[in-house]
Amino acid sequence: MNLTLRIWRQSGPDQPGGLTAYQVTGISEEMSFLEMLDTLNEELILRGDQPVAFDHDCREGICGACGMVINGQAHGPERTTTCQLHMRHFSDGDTIDVEPWRSAAFPVVKDLVVDRSAFDRIIGSGGYITAPTGSAPDAHAVPVPKEAADLAFEHAECIGCGACVAACPNGSAMLFTAAKVVHLNVLPQGAPERRGRVRSMVAAMDAEGFGGCTNTGECATACPKGIGLNAIGTLNREFLRGGRR
Amino acid sequence: MALTTHPPRAPLWRSTVGKKAAMAVSGLVLLAYLVAHMLGNLKIFFGAGELNGYAAWLRTIGRPFLGHEWFLWMARTVLLAAVLVHGTAAYQLSRRDLAARPTGYRHTRARASYATRTMRWGGVILGLFIVWHILDLTTLTVNSRAEQGHPYQNVVASFHTWYSGWIYCLAMLALGLHIRHGFWSAAQTLGLNSQHGNPRRDRVLKLAANALALLLTAGFLSVPIAVMTGAVK
Ligand code: HEM
Ligand code: SF4
Ligand code: FES
């Protein structure tokens, strides 16, 4: 396949950026989107140009590093991560636009790389227990109902990729925060501090400059891990229920 | 030894989630009022005596405990407060939302429904409509040939102008769309829609939103249409 890529190039956080067009040739259908970008970068390096900066780590869909917006869709046309997106979903002669996540809370570092540490600060505000309670208990010392275990696991699947924020017209982090809240709050181990945890995480989320939720649903459509919109309903309920803990 | 724990609850209005909840509650108050208002309007089909008598009765609710029009003024106070809370929250949250997405993408593909995408402009239309509507049928400022205490004749006079009926029809369509997304959204915001693994509740809420939107729009629309077609004169 031969493709035209129009990629967002920006040399640094405060530098102006813009789309630059590149031709890539001989792309195989089996390549992942990132391997296709590797091919481009090898050529750029041989030509003495700056390679396109993009984040990646596991390349198997579990780390959440590889976010980019492809033709206006977070992680591209399939519901998966960019590293798991294969070139068979494109056709010879296509023009593909590649842009970084766009959110005030995710500033561009370089090219397609954004700073997602706002997510770390949300986790840091509530994804822990406030008092040391000794060493970890035995795995089965606290019985966990099957339903709660399944629910926690489904929401623990969130890899913090940020596609929800990138897809949301308000740049809202509600789906991410909701996934964490559901994951931690449905488990008996997380229950004693469930109200305080939600308060802290919502406050941290607001402080980072993410937008509010308008229940538009773009986040859940874009999420590669299938976190559902109802998680946000649970976050809202946990937040509004009040209580002092 | 006391260790650092989570901070105490801040005022609800200060967080995006709390502000949205205030918006949901005020919206539901307005919605409840609209259901009653729409049903009351239908009295126009039973004749001038029925509607005018009903309007006169509205002013006597609570007598003799309450004085003339006291109940009406209490209701007006609640409605005004609801509109102010709703509008202020919408304005503040919208400003925040727009600032959170400073740069757009090359491709804008609208995937959300029309009702979802028009909440902000639809809300503005409804706000303007409320002002027009009060000037038209409450204060009668823009309704020439209208007379206090005769709502039937005033409604007919209003819809006999070429523009008034169209203003009402446009506003009622905006209202239907606003409620279609708004009702379900309020349920989600208030956490009523959090039943995991129970898609039925979500479907019931969406169905209820559509039914409410349809009933209100059709009920409200029936009045201007009846006057414009001459069925009510
Ligand atoms: C075509 C549909 C409508 C008709 C024919 C209609 C008719 C009327 C009439 C005749 C009154 C005066 C009642 C009286 O003085 O006893 C009134 C009051 C009112 N209407 Fe409507 N209405 C319609 C739709 C709406 C909608 C959609 C809203 C809200 C967005 C609304 C909000 C109000 C309010 C807030 C008042 C009370 C104003 C006050 O007395 O302080 N109406 N309406
Ligand atoms: S909720 Fe989904 S889209 Fe958002 S960060 Fe987690 S995995 Fe990514
Ligand atoms: S590189 Fe880890 S999810 Fe894509």
From TrEMBL, chain A:
Q: Which PROSITE patterns match?
A: 2FE2S_FER_1, 4FE4S_FER_1, 4FE4S_FER_2
Q: Which key words tag this protein in UniProt?
A: Iron, Iron-sulfur, Metal-binding
Q: Which GO terms describe its molecular function?
A: 2 iron, 2 sulfur cluster binding; electron transfer activity; metal ion binding
Q: Name one Pfam family in it.
A: Fer4_7
Which InterPro entries does the UniProt entry name for this protein?
A: 2Fe-2S_ferredoxin-like_sf (IPR036010), 2Fe2S_fd_BS (IPR006058), 4Fe4S_Fe-S-bd (IPR017896), 4Fe4S_Fe_S_CS (IPR017900), Beta-grasp_dom_sf (IPR012675), Helical_ferredxn (IPR009051), SDH/FRD_Iron-Sulfur (IPR050573), Succ_DH/fum_Rdtase_N (IPR025192)
Cofactor(s) required for function per UniProt: [2Fe-2S] cluster; [3Fe-4S] cluster
User: Per the UniProt entry, what are the Gene Ontology biological process annotations, in alphabetical order?
Assistant: aerobic respiration; respiratory electron transport chain
Keyword hit for Hydrolase? no
Would the keyword Iron-sulfur be found if you checked this record's keyword annotation?
yes
SUPFAM superfamilies in the record, alphabetically? 2Fe-2S ferredoxin-like (SSF54292), alpha-helical ferredoxin (SSF46548)
> Which residues does the UniProt record annotate as the domain 4Fe-4S ferredoxin-type?
149-179
Tell me which family the UniProt entry assigns to this protein: Belongs to the succinate dehydrogenase/fumarate reductase iron-sulfur protein family.
Question: What protein am I looking at?
Answer: Succinate dehydrogenase
Species name for this entry?
Streptomyces tateyamensis
Origin organism lineage: Bacteria, Bacillati, Actinomycetota, Actinomycetes, Kitasatosporales
From TrEMBL, chain B:
Write down any Gene Ontology CC term: membrane
Key words, A-Z = Membrane, Transmembrane, Transmembrane helix
| Matching InterPro entries | Cytochrome_b-558 (IPR011138), SQR/QFR_C/D (IPR034804)
Instruction: Please list every transmembrane segment annotated in the UniProt record, as residue ranges.
Output: 21-40, 70-93, 114-135, 165-183, 204-227
**At the top level of its lineage, which domain of life is listed?**
Bacteria
Q: Which NCBIfam families match?
A: sdhC_b558_fam
Q: What is this protein called?
A: Succinate dehydrogenase
Species, as recorded: Streptomyces tateyamensis
